[in-house]
């Protein structure tokens, strides 16, 4: 494959003004997004807020720190994280590039994990049938006696699995945001089902709402 020389002009187009965020040039907003995206690290959150990070900053995809934090509902400090961001003035109805709010983010999490939970319940029932010799018999399955000899991995009950045992906290987070007035985006859209012209029209309509500097990241992203 032919090599390509990266010029300073190309770098300016590809990266923020100060280059790729790293330990040497990270701005307060970078620290805040990092704290919210990679687990609920309350110490990192406090450090970012102490640096006057913008809790309503929108990144390149229009995501806010609150949207990022909302997906970390399996962490024990999840509610503390959300409450801290809200206390610092995080707005609950800011929209992403595709018109999604934090409520849309949570609703998608709930739909995904409730479906996964139902599938795990069915899978556990199927494994129990095989272990007790009550599964389907015949070619490819063997007899009921054969099935009883099958080694079935011991797994906890569905709601004791790591993927699902924290789901009550997900609903608590949703209730907290609803109490603060959070709503699903009225103009949320899926770009996969739009023509290029329709996408640009809808995207620009969303972007027009967030020209105020309070929604901008300090690092220029």
Task: Describe the protein's architecture and organization.
With 221 residues, the protein is mainly α. It has a single domain (8-215), classed as Alpha Horseshoe (Serine Threonine Protein Phosphatase 5, Tetratricopeptide repeat). The chain is 46% helix and 0% strand. The protein is built from nine helices and no strands. The model has no long low-confidence stretch (mean pLDDT 84).
Shape: elongated
- Tell me, what is the CATH class? Mainly Alpha
Name the structural class. mainly alpha
CATH architecture: Alpha Horseshoe
Low-confidence stretches: none
**Oligomeric state of shown chains:** single chain
As for the CATH topology, it is Serine Threonine Protein Phosphatase 5, Tetratricopeptide repeat
How many domains? The number is: 1
Distance between the termini: 31 Å
User: What is the overall pLDDT average?
Assistant: 84
Specify the helix fraction band: 40-55%
Largest sheet: none
Keywords: ANK repeat
Organism: Alexandrium catenella (Red tide dinoflagellate)
ANK repeats: 61-97
Protein name: Ankyrin repeat domain-containing protein
């Amino acid at each position: 494959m032919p090599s390509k020389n990266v010029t300073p002009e190309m770098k300016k187009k590809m990266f923020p003004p100060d280059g790729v965020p790293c330990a040497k040039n990270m701005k307060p907003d970078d620290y805040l997004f990092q704290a919210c995206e990679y687990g609920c690290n309350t110490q990192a959150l406090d450090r970012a807020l102490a640096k006057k990070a913008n809790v309503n900053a929108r990144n390149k995809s229009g995501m806010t720190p609150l949207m990022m934090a909302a997906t970390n509902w399996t962490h024990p400090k999840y509610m503390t994280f959300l409450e801290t961001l809200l206390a610092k003035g995080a707005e609950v109805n800011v929209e992403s590039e595709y018109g999604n709010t934090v409520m849309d983010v949570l609703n998608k999490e709930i739909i995904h994990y409730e479906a996964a939970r139902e599938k795990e319940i069915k899978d556990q029932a199927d494994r129990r049938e095989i272990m007790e010799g009550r599964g389907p018999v015949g070619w490819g399955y063997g007899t009921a006696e054969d099935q009883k000899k099958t080694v079935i991995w011991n797994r906890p009950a569905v709601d004791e699995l790591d993927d699902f045992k924290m789901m009550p906290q997900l609903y608590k987070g949703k209730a907290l945001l609803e109490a603060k007035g959070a709503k699903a985006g009225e103009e949320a859209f899926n770009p996969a089902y739009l023509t290029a012209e329709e996408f640009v029209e809808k995207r620009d309509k969303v972007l027009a709402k967030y020209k105020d500097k309070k929604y901008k990241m300090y690092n220029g992203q």
